[in-house]
Structure formats: structure tokens, C-alpha cells
Amino acid sequence: MKERIIITISRQFGSGGRNIGKRLAKALDIPFYDSELIDEGAKESGINPDMVRDMEETPTNSLLYSIATNAFFGTGHFSPSVELPLTDRLFLAQSEVIRKFAAQGSCVIVGRCANYVLREDPDLVNVFIHRDFEERVNQVSKLYDLPRKRAEEVTKKTDKKRSNYYAYYSDKNWGQAENYDLCLDSGKLGEDSSVALIVDFIEKRNLRRRIRG
Amino acid sequence: MKERIIITISRQFGSGGRNIGKRLAKALDIPFYDSELIDEGAKESGINPDMVRDMEETPTNSLLYSIATNAFFGTGHFSPSVELPLTDRLFLAQSEVIRKFAAQGSCVIVGRCANYVLREDPDLVNVFIHRDFEERVNQVSKLYDLPRKRAEEVTKKTDKKRSNYYAYYSDKNWGQAENYDLCLDSGKLGEDSSVALIVDFIEKRNLRRRIRG
After folding, report:
1. Distance from CA of B213 to the nearest CA of A (A)
2. ipTM rounded to 2 decimals
3. I want to staple A193 with a disulfide (CB 3.0 to 4.6 A). Which of A113, A189, B40, B115 is the partner?
């Protein structure tokens, strides 16, 4: 693919969205970035996401952590960056990393509100992957070797976290179709065909862009 | 297409969703039903949707209308159907028509909560069509020859009506990706490619169903 394209993937927990993103990047022969890589990048900018691990993708309790962190980092000097709650500073650091990735050229980015962070980018394609709840619980139970009840809890909780995180930073509804260019039920297609359908969407979109100039 | 398939299309006002549905039905060589045809069918069951025109897709004021209608139809006999607000009786009549259409075989149905009415049908594919608000207002302004400000009002109001109507009967969020199999931004593809992408989705879905048995 010659044209620059930045594909962001948002996904329900257990929908296979991360895998689909990884395989999509391979199919298009462009880099793939996920939350772990974004966090690695954030470390370089001075925030250690491991420290924020427990609040990952939850803006709640940020005041408490902020107070704790200010006490820890406290210098006595006024600094706007220290004034911000730790989760917000992490979000800003992650956003910087996401923008750096996108500046390097075409890529697939999964998670971390990338579709919001890059909302002004004209080459953006935003995808949302979802799947039937019971099917996702089955997947989670198998993949993480969890009893069904526990898998249910983890699935619900992770989606809730992602939804809150997205709503907090973007002021939009996570999983609302109009916030994405394409949304699909991965359970209806399977991973191979989900990747192929996204490629089809991108080709059709690029064709229209070329025609419209 | 040999396999029975029932495709429902929900759409934002001005997104071109109805046209896409019509062209999809033509591409698949199956019947197309829209709100008008559903309303025609409902007339046969004794409810005249013209009488309910003003409250179309709005459950509000149904009590008032119900009282007015009871006074009008009032027989003095107890009848559960007369007890129901008029909008609810219309919904039930429309639902009957939708089920009758689906029972006749493969088809495309646009509007009237068909994806909720037919939710138990195993051959259902639910599609949601949306588009950038400004682009939709442009379309509405051109199509209905309205000044821009008025086109904006009509677009917002019609979406609000559809959203309320869907939430009232289905208890789910209109336009929430997980309530559909496929959602797409028709502005990114244009009508031709939107139809082609839905066909591609259906072929991939049917392939998976055949493999899984």
C-alpha cells in the first residue's frame, strides 16, 4: 500500500481485536503497535506505566495517586505537569508516543484511545471489533485458563475500564458506531475474514479518495 | 444467493442507508421492504399509520393519543388491544408485517426496529449505516431543497426520533456497534462500495457458517 494510512483498532475484551490488528498489519506490510509498545515509549518520557499499572485505563482514583505521587516527587516548586493527576500525565505521554508512531508512516495501532489522539489525522481509519458476550467469555476462559465465572467477571470489568477510559478522555461513547469508520462482529466472520474485510474496506475507501482527489 | 438471509438496515438520517438497502436487495436479487411497505401492511391489520403519522417513531404523547383514540373508538367493552397506547398497537401491527415478510424468504428490510423484531431469527444480518453529520446535512439540504439551518434541525430531530423509538422498544442503544453485525460510514465509501462491502461481509459470513455447519 503506497498511500499513508493509520489504522486504529478498538476492541471489546475477548473479541480477538488485537490479533486481527496484528494480522492486518502483516497483510498490509506495515508496523503494528499495541498498548505494550505505547507504554514502553511512555517510559522514555519519564512516566513509568508500571507504577500506574493498577489504574491502567481507569481514570478513577487519579486524585489519590496524584497526591501520593506529588508527595513522592514533591520538589516544592510549582510545575503544571506535577499538578496533573498521574493517569492524565500518563495519557499525555502515551499520546505523544502514538503521535510519534503515526508520524513515521502507515501503521496499525491497537488501544490507548489512538482514534481520539489522532482525530485530526486525514489518513485515519478507525475500526471497532466486537463479539457476542458468551463467545468472548468462552475465548477468555480458554486463553487465560480461567473458570467461566471468573472469565465473565474479567471480560465485563475490562470492557467497563476501556469504556470509562475512552469516555473520560474523548467525551464520546466507546463502541458507538459513528465514532468509527467500520465496526464488525468478529464472531460472525472469524479472524481471517475479519482481516480480509478490513482490507476490502480500506481499498474501497482509498479508491473513493483517489477519485475525489 | 441460495441460503435464506434476512438483512436489516438501520441508518442515520441522510446517510443514504435506505438507498444502499434498496441497491443491496437488487444486487442479491431478493425483495426490499421499507417503512412505507411495512405501514401498508399494518393498515390491513386495522391500524392506520397515517393517523399516527405525527407520532411516527416517537413513543411520546402516546397516552394522550391513546385517550383520544379510545374516546374515538370507544365501545364500552373491555379489550386489551384498546388498552394499549396507539403507538404500541402500531408497533405490534408493524412487527407482525415484518415477521410476515421475513417468513416469505430472503429479503432486505429498512427501519421499524426490524433487527429487534426479528432478533431470534438465525438467518439475520444487522447493518447500521452512518455518516459524518455535516455531510448528511448537505445531502438532506440538497435532497429536500431545505436551507442549511432547517436541514440541520430535521437531521437532528429525525435521528433523535429513531434513537428514542429504538431505545423504547428494544431497551438497547440505537447505533451501538454491538447491536449490529456490521456498521459502516457510507461517506467514506460511497453507495456503490457500501453495497459491495455488505455483500462481501455476507459472503464471508456464509462461508464461515458453511464451514462450522
Report:
1. 13
2. 0.87
3. A189
